Amino acid sequence: MLCGTTSAAASEMNVSQPAISRLISDLEYSLGFALFDRRKGRLKPTPEALEFFGAVEESFLGFDKLEHLAEQIRTKQPKQLKISCTPSLASSLLPLVLLEHRKYHPDERVIIYTDNIAPLITRLQSNSIDIGIGLELPDLIGINSEHIGSARFVFAAHTDHPLAKKTVIRPEDLAGETVLSVISDKQPNYWNKISESLESVGSTLKRTIDIDAAHTGYAMIAAGMAVGVIEPFSARVWE
């Protein structure tokens, strides 16, 4: 899976190439499905092999985690809670949650990784964190997920902007305004819904600022450079 050829795997494991080939054949017979397609001297993993390899990796990572826990118990180290959280929630929801958590676990060490969705998912799948917190995380095999709430997106503008005085903002109110966009390859699924709601006035909007994080968007808004329909969690930092 990692070496690409039986000869490279044999060299890595310090055994003969025929021994590697025999081990693969024995494992395929035991599992009841092929692990590799043989193409021009190289081994290409089958879809079944990739799925099985993922489960094997999870098992080994689980053992690593148990070893780490044993080390903590043996040396009487404080317990650790490792969290990966998206930036907007890390600066709004997470401090409130951890403040309550600290009441019950005052000596626990908390390690926080501030990640966008892709690295957050990678950490979850590699079993390197205990909890991942984000907006609209996808369903992941082997990961327990829980929906903890919903929130409406908000319209944000500089306090001196004329639209800031309106109690209701309609799509047509944004005509001619510089409205924040999300970088195309960073767009989360929920951004599509916002784009759809602005479709009727899309041609009249100025799309000259693209962002990949809500805090950056609020910074642009605070500077008076744009307005935006944006997630509400980061707003409290900029109020």
Automatic annotation (TrEMBL):
Record's keyword annotation contains Repeat: no
Task: List each copy of the HTH lysR-type domain by range.
Answer: 1-46
- In the record, which residues are listed under signal peptide? none
Q: Which PROSITE patterns does the record cross-reference, listed alphabetically?
A: HTH_LYSR (PS50931)
| GO MF annotations in UniProt | DNA-binding transcription factor activity; sequence-specific DNA binding
Which keywords does the record carry? DNA-binding, Transcription, Transcription regulation
Q: Does the keyword DNA-binding apply?
A: yes
- Top-rank taxon of the source lineage equals Bacteria
SUPFAM superfamilies with a match to the protein in the record: Periplasmic binding protein-like II, Winged helix' DNA-binding domain
InterPro entries named among the record's database cross-references: LysR_HTH_N, LysR_subst-bd, WH-like_DNA-bd_sf, WH_DNA-bd_sf
- GO:BP terms for this protein? positive regulation of gene expression
What the record says about family reads: Belongs to the LysR transcriptional regulatory family.
Q: What is this protein called?
A: LysR family transcriptional regulator
Q: Which organism is it from?
A: uncultured Thiotrichaceae bacterium
